[in-house]
Design brief:
Layout: H1 3-6, E1 10-11, E2 15-16, E3 22-23, E4 33-42, E5 48-60, E6 70-83, E7 86-91, E8 95-98, E9 104-107, E10 114-121, H2 132-138, H3 142-149
Antiparallel strand pairs: 1-2, 3-4, 4-5, 5-10, 6-7, 6-8, 6-9, 6-10
Bound molecules: manganese (II) ion.
The site of manganese (II) ion has 5 residues, from loops.
Length: 157
């Protein structure tokens, strides 16, 4: 590896040298809003990848589940996360584990950006999206409905 590949400086605005800021997913593949992806470490010698995702105020990641696990560290500001049937406010440096086959979504609910680091297996299964019936089941929780609607899900300020 060249020195430029070994050492990559941080730039302003949560960017890094040699790292492209890309769309979160291909448009139309799944629902999401105002979220970007930066692949920080993608190396076939590793069994995992480290990505940085950032959403603008009001943005959200896809509600999905899959067999692979996510290890997440909130990296910029705060927002809310749904994991399984729990909705929590998440703040800078908090850690969130997404277990296998567990519905999850991150939302920038606080009128500010939300950024997080996400470690994931290099080889992983495709995410599943909820059916209408599964969404209906999730919406039986008022906290989850408030989370989906982008209103404050009752967590303390
Ligand atoms: Mn996921």
């Amino acid at each position: 590896m060249s020195d430029e590949q070994v050492f990559r400086s941080a730039r302003d605005g949560f960017r890094w040298d040699g790292v492209e800021r890309r769309p979160y997913k291909d448009e139309g593949e799944a629902p999401f809003k105002d979220i970007s992806r930066q692949a920080l470490f993608v190396d076939e010698r590793l069994g995992c990848e480290l990505r940085y995702f950032e959403m603008e105020a009001g943005g959200y990641s896809t509600l999905e589940r899959h067999e692979h696990v996510h290890a997440v560290m909130i990296f910029r500001r705060r927002g809310h996360a749904l994991v399984g049937d729990a909705v929590r406010q998440v703040e800078t440096h908090a850690l969130v584990t997404i277990p296998p086959m567990t519905w999850h979504q991150f939302r920038a609910t606080r009128g500010e950006p939300l950024g997080f680091l996400c470690m994931v297996n290099a080889e992983r299964d495709r995410p599943q999206l909820p059916t209408e019936a599964e969404l209906e089941t999730l919406r039986q929780s008022s906290a989850i409905t408030a989370f989906f609607d982008g209103t404050k899900p009752g967590a303390p300020d």
